[in-house]
């Protein structure tokens, strides 16, 4: 939803292979279908990613590196605010993990 969906829509309109990295399979798949229908681009795909989980970040990066020939653009757009204090199963504060650690790790794992 929001900025991320708008960016994905624009990339798909430019005929780019576009990977939506989403926490929610249901919401992500709905976005994929909407973007494909609006742009006519069948190369819009969904991959699960929860940036609050370093395990999820590592699995996503492994999949991208294994399945994609190249990666030209990475848009880190995940973020949360106003959550009550919570700790991830990995022992990290939820907001810090989601907004900073996850995207930082993802970017570094995807660098050449």
TrEMBL record:
The keyword Oxidoreductase applies. It comes from the Eukaryota. Belongs to the short-chain dehydrogenases/reductases (SDR) family. InterPro entries: NAD(P)-bd_dom_sf, SDR_fam. The keyword Lipoprotein does not apply. Keywords: Oxidoreductase. The gene is Rdh11. This is RDH11 dehydrogenase. GO terms for molecular function: oxidoreductase activity. It holds the Pfam family adh_short. It comes from Psilopogon haemacephalus (coppersmith barbet).
